[in-house]
Amino acid sequence: MRKVLALAAALVLAGCGRAIPAPAVSAPAGPVAANAVLAGVTLGPAMAALGLDDSDARGALASFVESCPRLVAREDASGLTRPEDWRPVCAAARDWPQGRVRAFFAEQFAPVQVGDGKAFATGYFEPEIAGSRTRRPGFAVPVYAMPSDLVRGWPDDVSPAERSGRPPLGRYDARGRFVPYYERAEIEEGALEGKAPVIAWAADPVEFFFLQIQGSGRLITPEGEVIRIGYAGQNGREYVGIGAVMRERGLLGSGPGQYPGSMQGIMAYIRDHPEEGRALMRLNKSWVFFRELTGDGPIGALGVPVRRQSSVAVDPAFVPLGAPVWLELDRGEANGLWIAQDTGGAIKGPNRFDTFWGAGAEARRIAGGMSGRGRALVLLPKAAAARLARR
Predict the structure, then answer these.
(1) For the whole model, what pTM was predicted?
(2) Are residues 190 and 204 both part of a single domain?
(3) Are residues 22 and 74 in the same domain?
(4) Is the N or C terminus of the chain more exposed, i.e. has fewer CB atoms within 10 Å?
(5) Whether 356 contacts 348, CB under 8 Å
(6) Running DSSP on this structure, what letter comes out for residue 333?
(7) Smallest Cα–Cα separation from 9: which of 374, 367, 376, 381?
(8) Residue 152's domain spans which residues?
(9) Inter-CA distances, 338 with 58, 119, 121, 174, Å
(10) Tens of pLDDT along 163-185?
(11) Closest by alpha carbon to 189, among 111, 62, 282?
(12) Are 5 and 18 in contact (CB under 8 A)?
């Protein structure tokens, strides 16, 4: 969502950018195949064996229909499907009778398992924090839009022969040299004052830090206005998951004097130890720039709104964006059918997911502590599943 870069506490705990997870454990390490086909795909059980209920199916169908215009027009990096596989499924979805929503998924899809199917899921949400359109007492944290001097280029010490792929993000200094862009500490010290547009002003630097990790959110003004902001870009500097640093330092855990290994626990430590907490946040040199959003819901990587308890962030190399995903986890609230509509910097590899929980206190609580393990299945159009079975 990019973003909602952003992610939930898993990003905070593990590392990376956009969206927000809050797991107390990180995803398993090890070599990862380049895409789903190389990771291995096997046919899963029939849809009837999954126990899909009507409420879950209705929410998933609504999100799937929203995804279809993008789904049928984009190439699938996972290698599992082709645009033409989705066209008849999307055509059927548009007019499918609401009284038979479970039948839609049973008749149109075949579940498959990617790799070993062992799922690890975190959660993210749309935070609500205090903000103001104008700078005034109590509102001094700038919410910057994209600065005009943030560009891509090659440093002088990178020879033409070494220049391949996409150039890094940075800026040109007064001497015309391409240098890294300002990092978090420099921006907090005022490096962008007068250089980047300010959308609004946040009241709490800690809350805003976590909103940046989430990648989108809502600013609530004292007058009650709601300013919705979403990911516009990032400064190109290194993302550091401060939760992982805190765990290495023995600050997180279940022992005496330690704080819980969740987003809430991390925030509690930062508030109880403001100087140390500020230094920890500045270890994360990444800074997220925003744009003001209008319309319905934060926008995911697929370019459509993400929906509470229906949208999930995935690695598009292993799950086609727009595809339904079935999760069976040891966290019951995350069980069921989701639609892959987003990505995230910490969401890498097969069977790695980040579930979206909306906005508000309940969403914050669930997403901030979500860390579930179990089984995942990807639902593919039957034509695509049959083609894979013939390989």
Answers:
(1) 0.75
(2) no
(3) yes
(4) C
(5) no
(6) G
(7) 367
(8) 147-196
(9) 11, 13, 12, 49
(10) 888 899 999 999 999 999 999 99
(11) 282
(12) yes
